[in-house]
Records
---
Amino acid sequence: MIGFGDLELLTLQQYWWIIVSLIGGLFVFIMFVQGGQTLINKLSKSETEKTMLVNAIGRKWELGFTTLVLFGGALFAAFPLFYATSFGGAYWVWLAILFCFIIQAVSYEYRTKPDNFLGQKTYEAFLYINGSLGVFLLGAAISTFFSGSEFVLDSNNFSHWQNPLRGLEALLNPFNYLLGLALVFLTRISGAMYFINIIDHEAIRERAVQSIKVDMIFFLVFFLGFLGWIFTKEGFAVDASGVVFMQKYKYLINFLEMPILLVLFVLGVLMVIVAVFNTVTFKKTCCIKTGGAGIVLTVTALLTSVGFNDTAYYPSTYDLQSSLTIMNSSGSHYTLMAMSYASLMVPFVLGYIALAWYSMDRVKITKEEIEAPDAHNY
Amino acid sequence: MEDSLVDWSRAQFALTAMYHWLFVPLTLGLGFIVAIMETMYVKTGSEFWKKTTKFWMTLFAINFAIGVATGIIMEFEFGTNWANYSWFVGDIFGAPLAVEGILAFFMESTFFAVMFFGWDKVGKKFHLVSTWLVAIGSNLSALWILVANGWMQYPVGMYFNPDTVRNEMMSFWDVLFSPVAISKFLHTIGSGYITASLFVVGISAWYLLKRREIEFAKKSMLIGATFGLITSLFVALSGDESAHQMAHKQPVKLAAMEGLYEGREGAGLVALGILNPNKKIGDAQEEFLFDIEIPYILSILGYHELNAFVPGLEDLVYGNEKYGIMGAQEKIEKGKIALAALEGYKEAKKAGNAEEAAAAQATLEAHMPYFGYGYLKAPEEIVPPIATTFYAFHIMVWLGGWFIVLFALVLFFLTKRDIQNYPLLLKAALWSIPLGYVASEAGWVVAEVGRQPWAIQDLMPVGVAATHIASTNVMISFFLFAILFTTLLIAEIKIMTKQIKIGPNGGH
């Protein structure tokens, strides 16, 4: 029998990059919770309606939180040099993102509890900040995979960040706003689709459809802008001896040279478009499934492409040769192998998540449930 | 690296970790207590148990939310503030964190949702299983993070790779089943069970003092005190095992915990003492202004032998030939040889000189156990803050003893007498809730302050482990965390207190 230990280091590195990309894809999908958080006021006209919305995403927020934590953990274990360089280097961007998530974690539970110190409005503001600023900053941070950062590695592989803004300099590059804003509007679309699916309430559904129409336009503008930017810019390529150099149209070439990723990417985008079309035109309520799968495919393909095909996925514009590739930043063969065995648990985990999700969502959220005397409401 | 940076980085880590640890113990223990209560409900079908379960579950959720909020930073802080550490040992340290995510966090979060929103959506049994899985999941996540922490205290199962300039894992099982990791895990989750038991017993006592919810309070108290008595006895035993591990793996920490400057055979355990604040390592002053010592106990705890020699701080700093203890100065010299060999290796590699590289590597490997000492300047640097370690340890032990007595008394008066007639005991139970937190935090202070200056025992001092960043940044983020977490803590306590006042019959 062949085990993970028999695989070559490069294969394991690729396997783990795909897993990290997949976790990234799942995370962007589950961020419909964040998108939903920005719609709470817009889609509700009464306290009961608002509570319905908050409860709908309130039973899912922890999955997203956990996925973010897993994203961090998987990067730490599989690509520790990225973990050290990026989190330590782009200090303020990551801390800002974390602050946006810290305030989310208490808000559902504390929002309507008596004597909650900060007041309901504050907790709702926390949810809004998490859903807008948090998502935007994540997008901007991921965008530096394409625009590059300023760091240098010393002979101990300790990293030295060169910009005193410690990551906030990413916001000085207008191109980084494209992915950030695209993500904000994408998660608002998926949030609205989730509401339409889970809440059995006509008025909310109608308002959600309206919001999707507007958000889709903004999403397309920023997303196409982002694609236009990365497909035309110079990318960070690596030659056979590990030397990093700038290559014209690198990110477009990646997709052309890896047609399977191109197919998955295009398929994913089409699924999102079809989901939006069906929701808006035919008033279908099930489109979060198609749209969600589309988001996972698109993001996974995009992230995979930036680590494969001799690309430096976390480039340094300050010192090109310090750029991180999946080859020079990964864990050892042994660790990747051990982790690969652990990864075999993932289908099992996804299985029970799906089971719990299905059991819970079989019964749609209604006004009656929210108004029941012994309901556990957020 | 500048001192203020290291200090702020430590301060921030201590702040965030101690805040996080205010909430984790209750989650670890209350999860099981709630699961036991729900099991009673499913077995008896009695509405009383359902109501009881739901009440404690509400408190569980309030606590859980802030535990999650303060927890996420812990995972990322290794990267943000200890970037060099993250590279140097990330190959070993990252794996338990990732496995924790895959195996534990998802279990917790998935079934948490079922536990709270599933009462009328899934069957009784499925719901009960979910509640148990939340408890098991949170304890599993404790396992993985404590394995990671245990590894920092006693690094095993790895080798140093000079090409990547980091430690790489050789055996996942050695890391997982390291004796330090296992005893740390048991001792720590046990302390969480005690905290939760104190919480349940104390709140129940408050109801009895107020003559409210009598049946509810007595039955909750019975479950809490039983769980508490069993687990506090168990924690005492696992504490003994921890001391034994420490004597062999971290003798400096053990000596600091006991304020033991000069080693001796048949060393006693200081039951109570006030350290001489002017005492310096190596001077002739008395160690204690006042102390009560129980003879031989430290030798027995540490080495399971009546007359075993327990090295003191001075033996460990300056060496003791008679007992074959190497002094820190000698270790520093060996450490410097290791660091120089590493540089030599890198240069030889660059120059393509295989022979020189191999020689340098051999020197490096021979001196690797002392690698971290090479970064130290003076042998006294290996000594942690003695007073903090000493007092934290003794507070923890005394409180641990008190909890055993308290649980036993509560159980006795609850079952053999009418406990309502003993308001003093009820008040003691109520006021022991904060003491549980004090004991638990003190335990972490012993573990983490007591191992200074090491981020990884003998391999990397904290000064080398920190991220290269201007200390102002960390100072600002320290205050941001302090303000945010304090605000959230106030909110949590207010909400919790209100819910307790409302009680099991007043709301949900």
---
Amino acid sequence: MKMTPQNSRRLLLGGLAVVLLGALAWVALRTGPLAPTKVQVTQVQKGSVSPTIFGIGQVEAQRSWMVGPTVAGRVLSVKVDVGQAVQPGQPLAEMDPVDLDQRLAALDASLARAQSAQQAAGAQVADAQARSALAAANLKRNQDLANQNFISAGALEARAQDVASANAGVAAAQANLGGSAQDITRLRAERAALAQQRGNLKLVAPAAAVVTVREAEAGTTVVAGQAVLRLIDPATLWVKLRVDQGRSAGLAPGLAARIALRSRPGELLAGKVARVEALADSVTEERLAMVAFDALPGGASVGEMVEVTLQLPATAESLLLPNAAVVQHEGKTGVWRLKDGTLEFAPVTLGVRGLDGTVQVITGLVEADTVVRYSQSALKPGARIAVVEQLVPAGAAK
Amino acid sequence: MISLAGRDILHGWSKYVLTGLGLGLLIGVTLTMAGVYRGMVDDAHALLTNSRADLWVVQKDTQGPYAESSSIKDDVVRSVRGMPGVAAAANVAYLTMQVQKDGQDQRVMVVGMEPGMPGAPGYLVTGRHITRNHYEAVADVKTGFALGDTVRIRRHDYTVVGLTRRMVSSGGDPMLFVPMKDAQETQFLKDNDAIVNDRARTAANPAFNRPGSPGLLEAVQNLQTSSRSVNAVLVQIAPGFNPEQVAEPIRRWKHLSVYTRDGMEDILVVKLIANSAKQIGMFLVILAIVSAAIVAFIIYTMTMGKLREIAVLKLIGTRDRTIAGMILQQALGLGLIGFAVGKVAATFWAPAFPKFVLLLPGDSVTGLVVTLIICALASTLAIRVALKVDPGAAIG
């Protein structure tokens, strides 16, 4: 055929028609609901996964005290301020004694008076003893006279009675003296009790600590047991860790921990699980553990939030999968396996999971099985798929 | 036998092709508009499908969690798990909010979910699923986030560890999946100033701050900032049960509202997007009428331009049927070119739309049939004029 203008025009139009038809066919088959689902596959490989436990917690002090009065009263003075380090026995605050000092003075006076009374009783004893001695001498003389019948028997009996009275007087005076001594003992005890109460109004540090809160100022009335000051021991800072119950398998004392304080997110501090609490939080479905720092971080504040990662020992060599490959299909957990180019659902049982997204496969797959890792949409058995190198051109997961 | 229509097209091919192209772009717009409507409905369906739930358990007498707000306590899920026919149940929290991305606001629906449970993304396009129970997120690719990006939600930074696709709210906002506890906190956490103000307000209330009862104030304040609520419980039913059979006892004994997939679709498609769908539908109808009118006019003017040639044909004794066939073939050809161009164009520009545009093959077939019918009808107008032309006009 010669290339007449008509023929070339025909060719051009034919070419255009072919291009249009081609584009239409491509559009119909490669996009929209008729297009195959693009997937990215991976092979099941052997390896070991080191399971990790992740949780958040907050810095707490193992030892903390609330210092306050044992009876209601008014605060007289507070001697320390927040942030101050205190030594054991150091006075921290004092409560208003109200009338305690006056009562002490009154007791002191009573004591002095009781001592005077004791002296008086001693003098009375001496007086009674003098009387008794005189009566005895008189009796002896009158007995001699009565033997010589110079006086009547009646007069002698009167002397004997004098002696008995004088002796009774001595006994009474001695009893008086004893009583006054007991009075003094009682008053001393009362004073000691009052002094003890007075001393109790002084709030002293129970141990070496740092003041964290000054809750009441001078003049504030507080009830018994209410804190005036709160103290913590900064050397006992640790972390109260909360771990989701479902992901806490293997949580045990002694596990090595990496702790990131919220104030220093880039810095990982070493620590160790000191204790796993016997009581879990049933409301938040979390388990609690205390994690101690290997070296106390300077400047950590109580109540600061931390992220804790606990490293568990690595598992033995086993089949591994990325967790992106694991799907739920008709109520079963499994993966989409590619067998001879067709897609089938393979239920699997999974073991431990690493924080990096690797999952241990216990049963359901063999090594070098090809499974779908990423897909453009949810898959069905026998669905048309197109395997691509990379679904999203981006870097790998962290 | 030579094709009269083909010869004529060959004669003025550039005009014919360009007309077809223009018509094609118009048909493309109409198809896109249908795609926008389908996309809207599909967004609603995608939301339901991607949640992988058979039943939605929500606050009593609400149509939550998508159409209305619903709030239930997060321990309700435990009692739901114990009901007959429930294979799996999980808490879920939804909140639509703006998150910062490179200094620009990005509207997303934050979904609080438990990994591997209903409500969690079923597939990924890259990265991995969430493994920590705090501060990790899986994002829809439409959010524009990449792996390793940090997203700030309220006071915490979340690391994007995986990307998924077609996970959107019924309004087409892309989803951002975060662990349940974080979502709960985000949903009910006020900003710090508000918390401090609230504390001061509570402390000023003598009922909560009595001198005789130390500790009461702290207890009240703790109560104010803790949150134990979720929006819904998603339930998957065990094989052998039908959804209504499982839903009924939960409604009756747990005093909650329960929706099946059908009920939820009804709420989303019929109630939630009804107005915007009607809006698009109205626009689609008008666009279709305008397109039809333009096709008719184009073919009419095309014929009018050839009246002289038609008169010549008549003069040399061409049959009316042949002339009518020529015009009809040209009109149908125009329709076919237009449809093909329109379909290709719509497919190429659809991904550029911010919301999902779904071009269904069924819609395309309907579009093709309607285009051809309109072309055929429009050509009758031109045929009538052509047949009426006086052969004498060719020489007069």
